[in-house]
Design brief:
- This protein is α+β, with helices and mostly antiparallel strands.
- The chain contains 3 helices and 2 strands.
- Strands 1-2 form a two-stranded parallel sheet.
- The N and C termini lie far apart (about 40 Å).
Amino acid sequence: MCDFARPLNANFSTGTVAHAQAQQQVPMSLPVSLMQDLLVFPQYQRRGIGAALMRAMMERFANVRQFQLLTDDTEKTLAFYRSLGLHDLSSLGCQGFMR
């Protein structure tokens, strides 16, 4: 197992999936959770790592009223997030804006 995967594997075995550059506790009472990009090194894609991380995060923040995700507009990326039950804004009759 490569050095990158060891901490991730250890976290999976203890039931804790978390890796953050800045270690901060997020209060569970937030009305909105915002995520920008879930990145998995290309050599580790298609192994269930990204899906496991997303499911763990969505479960941990299940009580958050609204979960928002900003990501690339590619068919591969859209298919991944749709497979997890997420919907793009246009399919919900919504529009998003940024600056």
